[in-house]
Amino acid sequence: MEKITELPSLYNHLEKMSVMELVSNINKEDQKVAVAIQRVLPQIAKVVEMIELKLREGGRMFYLGAGSGGRLSVLDKVELPNTYGIEHGIFNCLLAGGEERLLEVLEAMEDSEEDAVRQLDLFEVSGSDFVLGISASGTTPYVLAGMKRCRELGIPCGCLVNNLDSPIAANCDYPIELILGPEFVTGSTRMKCGTAQKMIFDMISTSVLIRLGKVEDNKMVNVRLINNKVVDRSVRMLMEEAGLTDYEEAKQLILKYQNVRKALDYLKTIK
User: Fold this and answer.
1) Which residues form the SIS domain (predicted)?
2) How far is CA 8 from its chain centroid?
3) Stretch 72-97: mean pLDDT, rounded?
4) Which one of 132, 134, 146, 214 has the fewest CB atoms closer than 10 angstroms to its CB?
C-alpha cells in the first residue's frame, strides 16, 4: 500500500513563510477536507446504520484508536450524555494506553497489540456491540489487533483510515477510506486527518442520536441542565414548543422535569 499520509508536503520552506502565508496555506488544505468527506458519505451512512441497529438492540458503540484520532474520539464521547441526555456507557472509547491516561500522550502504546485485546476483553465487547477503529495510516498495530480480535469474536466493526488498501481496512466489515493527500507539515496527521476525524465523529454520533429520537425538530430536547445557559435555552425551547408565554412558569416545569422532552410529555397529559 502507498502511505499517502507520509507523502511530502505540497509546500516547501515553511519556515520562510510569513504568518499570512502560513495561515492561508493551511486554510487551503483544510478546504479539501469537506470535499473528500463528501466522497465517502455512503460508507459513513453504512456505519451510522449499523450503530443505530446495535444501539436499538441494547448494544454499545466503541471507538478504538490511538494518538490524535483516539483522543478526538474521547472528546466526542464525553459530550454526548449532556447534549443528548443519554446514559454513560452507550458510547465508549478504547484508547491505546487507557482513556484514564489520556493526557500523558502515550504514543508508544500505539504499538501494543496486547493492549487492544486486553481492553476489548475488559469491556466484554461482544457481537451485540459495534467497534470503529481509528488510524490515519491504516497500519497502527493497536488498532489492527483490535480489528482482528473483533473478527475472531464476530463483533461488527468499521474503521476510519486515510490510506487505501490498508491492513486495518482489510480486517473490518465497514471501512471508511478517506483520502486527503499529504499534510501541510509532512506526516503530521493531527492536521487534515484530525480535522476530518472530528467532523466524521460529529456526523456519526449526531446522526445516530437523531435517529434514536434524542432530537425533536432541530432542538436538543433531552439536553441536561448543566448550567444556567442550558436552563435558559431549555426554558425558551419549552415555551416555543408548547406555546407558553410565561417564562417563570416554563422555568419551573423545566426545573421539575429536568429536560424539555419530559416537560412536554407532562403538558400533553393535562391538555
Assistant:
1) 51-214
2) 28
3) 94
4) 214
Catalytic residue among 21, 79, 152, 249: 79
Grid cell at residue 66: 490511538
- Cα–Cα distances (Å) from 241 to 88, 158, 180, 249, 266, in that order, read 28, 38, 42, 14, 13
Q: What integer pLDDT is reported at residue 271 of this predicted model?
A: 67
Q: Which of these, 185, 212, 233, lies nearest to 84 by C-alpha position?
A: 212
Residue 259 dihedral angles phi and psi, to the nearest 5°: -165, 170
Are 141 and 112 spatial neighbours (Cβ–Cβ below 8 Å)? yes
pLDDT per residue as tens digits for the range 100-150: 666 665 565 677 888 999 999 999 999 999 999 999 999 999 999 999 999
Quick one: 128 exposed, middle or buried, by C-beta within 10 A (0-12, 13-18, 19+)?
middle
Mean pLDDT of the chain: 94
d(CA 33, CA 41): 13
Handedness of CA 69, 43, 174, 59 (dihedral sign): positive
SS (H, E, C) 122-163: HCCCCCCCEEEEEECCCCCHHHHHHHHHHHHHCCCEEEEECC
Cell 430536547 belongs to 221
Is 29 a known active-site residue?
no
Could you tell me whether strands 91-95 and 157-161 are parallel, antiparallel, or unpaired per DSSP bridges? unpaired
**How far is the C-alpha of 154 from the C-alpha of 135, rounded, in Å?**
21
Work out whether the CA dihedral 24, 27, 29, 31 comes out positive or negative. negative
CA distances from 249 to 82, 227, 232, 268 (A): 24, 19, 12, 16
Catalytic residue among 29, 52, 99, 110: 110
Could you confirm whether 79 is annotated as catalytic? yes
pLDDT mean over 243-264: 95
Question: In terms of Cα–Cα distance, which of 56, 95, 88 is closest to 208?
Answer: 56
